[in-house]
Amino acid sequence: MIEAKIAQRVLSDLPAVEALGDQVPYNCPDCGGVLWQMAEGKLLRYRCHTGHAFTSSVLLAEQTVKIEETLWVALRMFEERQNLLVTMSKNDNKETSLSISQRAKDAQVHIERIRAMLKATDKGSSASK
């Protein structure tokens, strides 16, 4: 079976994977590779050429996890940026300091938006449990 060989990493060439199903515009949440959709009755499954495999519901859950991880990284980076800008504004001349202070305020807007998205994600997660 082609799929078993791909899963065992014995076979990972493109023609073999294309024989499984149709390429779809989704990426593998584990490796970022292209996914192929395989239909078995009403069950949709997805597999990348390196062997990662997902059902539709698992793929959706993995995408959600990756989005949340990305939002946490973005939040941390914006908070660090804001802290650096505040520090810089204290050490620069008045004219430059105003520009830097405005950039710090802009960062705060992004921080609040990302926090709101994370809170919405938390509510969605707890509602589905």
What does this structure look like?
The protein is of the alpha+beta class and 129 residues long. It folds into two domains: 50 residues, no CATH class; 65 residues. Helix content is 64%, strand content 17%. A four-stranded antiparallel beta sheet has the order 1-2-3-4. α3 packs antiparallel against α4. It is elongated, with a radius of gyration of 22 Å. The two termini are 36 Å apart. The model has no long low-confidence stretch (mean pLDDT 84).
Ordered list of secondary-structure elements with their pairings:
Layout: H1 2-7, H2 14-18, E1 22-27, E2 34-40, E3 43-48, E4 53-55, H3 56-91, H4 94-128
Antiparallel strand pairs: 1-2, 2-3, 3-4
Helix pairs in contact: 3-4
Q: Multimeric state of these chains? A: single chain
String of helices and strands: HHEEEEHH
- Radius of gyration, in Å, reads 22 Å
**What's the number of structural domains?**
2
The largest sheet, given as strand count, sense and whether it forms a barrel, is: 4 strands, antiparallel
